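The records we work with from here on pair a chain with its fold. Each token is a code from a learned vocabulary of local backbone shapes. A record is reproduced here so that you can trace the correspondence yourselves:

_____
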Amino acid sequence: MLKSYKTEIYPTAKQKQIIHRTIGVCRFVYNFYLAHNKEIYEKEERFVSGYAFSVWLNNVYLPQNPAFLWIREVSSKSVKQSIMHADRAFRNFFHHKSGFPNWKKKSNSDVKMHFFKNDSKNIIACERHRIKLPTLGWMRLKEKGYLPTNSKTHIIKSGTVSMKAGRYYVSVLVEETEPEKPILNLFGIGIDLGIKDFAICSNGKTYQNINKTVRIRKLEKSLKRQQRKLSRKYESLKKSTNNLKGEATRQNIQKQRLKVQRFYHRLDCIRTDSINKVISELVKTKPAWITLENLNIRGMMKNRHLAKAIAQQKFFAFRIKLQAKCKAYGIELRLVDRIYTCPACGYTADRDFNASLNLRDCQTYQVA
């Protein structure tokens, strides 16, 4: 089986330079492929595949344009993978699975540096505290002992190096033997996701909304303060007439933007860690099945009064992570439709509307 591991790394100054250069070239090639394909389609009404573009780039364009030979100074496999990602984005667009591919921006992009296992004989070495990556060499790990180190039972096939908010991460895809699935209990668990409380379970457990804790509120208050500082720096840049002053303001803007990004990243990590702990606690009870309501997250996000609170709860991320964990443990994950259908008479209604009818017809009540 294939399993992915992701952890933070501590690259040296030279390694950071290689990472930044590779990511920059991959972003440029991705955008170049989009622009080239758009131009060809408008003129000749045909689509250029990623493989055809890669051949044209290396054999035709670069020899005729020596000024762009810096593209060859970075890992060719990372560049090729960036082209194939753009190719996949175009094919999803043509098959009506997504919109037109977006341009990758330097300030906000998810471009990564890719690496692969070269051949069957060579391995990507990994030790308790460091990992050896192609073109980068040995790199220190922040979380020691997390990545598997036995090359006989765990083979690192490929991976990526990414950067976010000034921090660097490595994600590796490991081929390993599938562990034996545990013996499950005979009971199941139903989970109702909400905003007041994150999850209310049928076993009596209630998991609080992490966004209502003092820790999160303090961070959000500090984030607002840092965002106001960033806004004032932009206003100062507009008013500045001296070129030297303007250049200094731009540098301060970049520093302040990094501070804001770090706050966003820290909040995201806290929320992700919270749902990971909830999933781990649920799965360790070894239920035979887990039932969730198939929520319409996209429709819920259209409510502008609740959109922020819903986005912070990370319902979709919770479902995806729970699905992967249930698959690893052999637990059946059930999704209940939002429409209620009576098994006896076939009556069909919205599940929430049906609940309101049950409340209307309730015979046991107390007059307020």
